[in-house]
Each structure stands twice: as C-alpha cells, then as structure tokens.
C-alpha cells in the first residue's frame, strides 16, 4: 500500500524560498513536508564535484539589504556556513559586501534544512483540490494530503502544475504570472591544470560577449584544485540552450582564455539553467492564489516575487509562510 503523508503544509521545492517558508511555518506550529525533485538541497544554489574539483555552479554569492535578512546572514556566519567573500572587485567598486556559502553555497541550504522533513529526489507529478484539502501525487507512487500548499518552482513550471490540476487562477493573478520572465544560463564547470589569471578575489562580471561571469573556485575557497565556473550571458545562453552542450561549453571555454592564463582545461561539464534569474518580477513578495476563491490555502513564492536573487527568494518564502499561517 503506497504511503500517504498528511502534513498541515506541503511545500514543493527545497530551494531558498521553500526552506525559508518551512522554517517559519514549523516555528508557528504547522507540520510541514518539503518535496524536491532534485537530489541535493538548495535548488539554484547548486554545487558539483568533478574528481578533486568542487564548483558553485548556480548562485555565486548573496548581498544583504533588509534587516531580517541581514540578521539571518549574521546567524549563518556564526554557524560557520557563510562568510564575507568580498566587497568590490577590480574595476567595479560596490558598497554591498558579497557573502558566500562555506564551504559551498549549498551549505546554507543544508543549514536551513536542519529539523525539516524533506523528501529528496522525488517529483510532485500533479496536484489537485480534494474538498477542503490538497492532494499531490509523487513520482515514487506516494501521495500527500495537506491542508495548505506552497509552490516555489519557477513560475512557468508552477503554471504547468496548476493547469494540469485544473486549478482555476483568477484573471488578474494569471496576468501577473504571465508577465514574469526569466533568463537562461549555460554554466560550464572546468577543471584546470594550474592557477587562473583572474585577480583577487577570484571572480569577474563581464558586460560584453558570451560570458557574463567567471569565478575561480580555488581562490574562492570552494575547490581544493584549480577549477573555474563560467556563466554564459543571458543572450548567449538563450541562443544556445538547446544546442550540443559540450560544443557550447567549449565555445565558452575558448572565450574565457584571457582569464585562464597558462592553465589548460583537463575536463569539463556543462549545465543549462532554463530558468536562471528572473528578468521580470512581480511586485508582491508572494502570491496567495487562494485569496477570494474556494480553493484551500495555496501560495506561490520564489525569487520571481520578492526580487530576482538569493535575498528575494528567502524573503518571498518568509512572506508566503506569513500568508499561509493566517489563511484558512
Ligand atoms: C547560474 C545562476 C547564477 C546565479 N547567481 C546568483 C548570485 O550570484 N546571487 C544571487 O543572489 N542570486 C543568484 N542566482 C539566483 C538565485 O540562485 C535564485 O534567486 C534563488 O536560488 C532562487 O530560489 P528559489 O527557492 O526561488 O527557487 P529554486 O532554487 O529554483 O527552488 C525551486 C525548487 O523547486 C524544485 N521543484 C520544481 N518543480 C518541482 C516538482 N514538480 N516537484 C518537486 N520539486 C520541484 C526544484 O528542484 C528546486 O529545487 C543565480 C541563479 C543561477 C541559476
């Protein structure tokens, strides 16, 4: 007999929004189940190993502007899972310190996951309304029946789930969701046979050409051996997302030559992020989709709501938790 889970709240996604919401909901006395199709935690805070090399290949750093988020960053530093990386890089002085995960960005997600019930490597195949509750079918054959639902996947994927479940979206909210847009990013993880020519602190954002960002994971303290992460620009990545990944990766490596010095690439892998960073976000910090409807409580959160980055995703999760706590 397949297992049925009965949490108060089902959260789809163990990225920053989902994990941040889960903590607040649990703190408020709700039982919470988080389900993520990825094997790792953190969603777009992704890391990968190739032999002795380690890479941050999703989000590279975070900035902190808002009071509660600044306090959260301070608590992660105290817990040893975050540290200041730098406050400016050559040619681009900037007043906002950049913080990184220690040893990698995913360490922050692992920290946020402590004490939460999370099913990993399991996809929510579909969701539907069952009277006053939500029913979710998981791809391992199990089901979840929950009083409240929070979805944190990138909005186009969320819309697919809602449409397949015949969940009616009010017209004004549908229009807001349709406006949200993302850029793609092709990420190359390349192992090197020697140090790069990238100056301290080991990262550069580029304005022109196919590369948007290049980061030296050895200098950053992420990798034990020389290893670079190269992010294609939004334009380049959109043009080539469906092309042969290794050919596109090689093009980005060729374009990165000036930053690699004498180092040669010994091995590389490529990851394509279809929904990398939002380019058009909604003004609200989250969306309570069930508001003024007959639906059981249902909220949407993620970086498409409170701002297109790490901090925005966390704040969106907090906002969604607050909305769901008071929703009946
Ligand atoms: C290449 C790249 C570089 C970036 N660089 C930076 C940076 O330097 N600084 C910065 O602040 N931000 C950066 N960002 C953005 C930052 O990573 C995101 O804003 C943030 O991580 C988004 O978190 P989230 O929780 O909203 O979404 P996600 O992290 O995408 O979490 C959503 C989760 O939902 C899961 N999911 C989706 N559908 C299902 C389903 N049906 N069933 C189960 N699980 C499902 C996914 O597996 C995923 O784990 C970058 C992003 C990328 C991709």
Structure description:
With 328 residues, the protein is of the alpha/beta class. The protein has two domains: 4-49 and 61-180 and 281-326, FAD/NAD(P)-binding domain; 182-279, Polyamine Oxidase, Chain A, domain 2. Helices cover 30% and strands 34% of the residues. It has eleven helices and 19 strands. The chain has helices at residues 16-27, 67-79, 106-112, 155-164, 171-179, 217-220, 234-240, 245-255, 257-260, 303-306, 310-326; strands at residues 4-5, 9-12, 32-36, 47-50, 53-56, 82-89, 92-101, 117-120, 124-130, 133-138, 143-146, 148-151, 181-192, 203-205, 211-216, 227-232, 265-280, 287-288, 298-300. The strands form five sheets. A six-stranded mixed β-sheet has the order 8-3-2-12-19-18, with helices on one face. It has a five-stranded antiparallel β-sheet with strand order 14-15-16-13-17. A hairpin with a 2-residue loop joins β4 and β5. α1 runs parallel beside α11 (310-326). The chain is globular, with a radius of gyration of 20 Å. The protein starts with a strand and ends with a helix. The structure holds flavin-adenine dinucleotide.
Largest sheet: 6 strands, mixed
Q: How is the quaternary structure best described?
A: single chain
- In total, the number of strands is 19
Rg over CA atoms, rounded to whole Å, is: 20 Å
- The CATH architecture assignment of the largest domain turns out to be 3-Layer(bba) Sandwich
Instruction: Give the domain tally.
Output: 2
Bound molecules: flavin-adenine dinucleotide
Major sheet: arrangement of strands: 8-3-2-12-19-18
CATH class of the largest domain: Alpha Beta
CATH T-level topology of the largest domain: FAD/NAD(P)-binding domain
Mean pLDDT: 96
Strand content: 25-35%
Q: Give the full name of the CATH homologous superfamily of the largest domain.
A: FAD/NAD(P)-binding domain
- Amount of helix: 25-40%
Please provide the ordered H/E string of secondary-structure elements: EEHEEEHEEHEEEEEHHEEEHEHHHEEEHH
Low-pLDDT runs of 5+ residues are: none
Total of DSSP H or I helical runs spanning 4+ residues: 11
CA-to-CA gap between the ends?
31 Å
Shape estimate = globular
